[in-house]
Each structure stands twice: as C-alpha cells, then as structure tokens.
Specification:
Distance between the termini: 35 Å
Enzyme class: hydrolase
Radius of gyration: 20 Å
Mean pLDDT: 92
Number of helices: 2
Largest sheet: 4 strands, antiparallel
Strand content: 25-35%
EC number: 3.6.1.23
Keywords: Hydrolase, Nucleotide metabolism
Protein name: dUTP diphosphatase
Pfam family, one: dUTPase
Helix content: under 10%
Strand order of the largest sheet: 1-4-8-6
Length: about 160
C-alpha cells in the first residue's frame, strides 16, 4: 500500500511509554491515519469552550522530502461523539519540521457540558501523510486584460447548494 516513491520517514521516540501503548500503529489495515497518543503525566480535563491545550505526542518526525507533509487531524469518533477536536482545525507538519508533534486539543461542546477527560495514553488524534504540490507562482497585473471565469470573484456559496 505504500507508494513506491514515498519517503522513508524517521521517527524519534521521545516518550518510552509509546512502545507499551503500541505506537506506531494504524487503527486498521486500511486506515489512513496513524494513531496519536496523549503523552501526559496525569489525566487532563478540557473544560467546554476553554482555550485549546497543546498535548505532547511523545515523538518527532523527519519527513525530509518537500513533496510530502503530515496532517494532524481529530479522530472521527472522539470528535463527533465526545466533542474533542483540534484547536487549530488541522495541524500541518512540514517536511523540515523535526520538533515534537503537538496536538492542539479543544473541547468544542457548549458550556455547561462536562469536561472531556484525556487519560495518559489515550489515542486523541491521527496523523495522515500526504503529497504536496507547489505550483510556480506568476504575478499578473490586476488589469492585465485576460478574460476571467464565468464565476469571477463570487465565493462563499455562490455556486449553489445542489
């Protein structure tokens, strides 16, 4: 399943508990996301609508290939069922970033919902590797006379719902 041109990604374990928790692993044979564990010393309580908290993952990566990056995404069940989402929406891990992967955890539930409790070792997010396309950028004058598209500058739902 690994593309033949996929880079060899280096993983540096920073927290020895990860090996006991089964890291690294995908949740199933065909899962896209690599499970990320909360490497915290004690349970963490996320109050509803409180500021996002950076949770250490206990490892770092060396992707090294500018044609690839990794994305930190919420786990679908934890987000949908319990309200645990990423405080930054999606975390982008660039090919040249080699620090610890941090998970921005946020309780999206309205107050006065109960806090979400994250236990040490809980799988709270997932890491997805993806290719990156970097186009050549060409500056054009705002009034260069080239015809625009029929859509033009209309956005935010202007193409309809169906």
């Amino acid at each position: 399943m690994t593309p033949p041109d996929a880079p060899a990604v280096g993983i540096r374990l920073l927290d020895p508990r990860l090996a006991d928790w089964g890291f690294p692993r995908w949740g199933s044979e065909m899962a896209a996301g690599l499970d990320l564990h909360a490497c915290i010393p004690e349970p963490l309580r996320l109050a509803p609508q409180a500021a996002a908290i950076l949770v250490p993952s206990g490892f770092s990566l060396r992707i090294g290939d500018p044609g690839w990056c990794a994305l930190v995404l919420p786990r679908s069940g934890f987000g949908h069922r319990d309200g645990l989402v990423m405080g930054n929406g999606t975390g982008v891990i660039d090919a040249d970033y080699e620090g610890e992967i941090l998970i921005s955890a946020w309780n999206r539930n309205p107050a006065p919902s109960p806090a979400i409790v994250i236990e040490p070792g809980d799988r709270i997010a997932q890491l997805v590797f993806t290719r990156i396309g970097r186009p050549r950028l060409a500056f054009v004058a705002a009034d260069d006379g080239t015809p625009g598209s029929a859509r033009g500058a209309r956005g935010f739902g202007s193409s309809g719902r169906r």
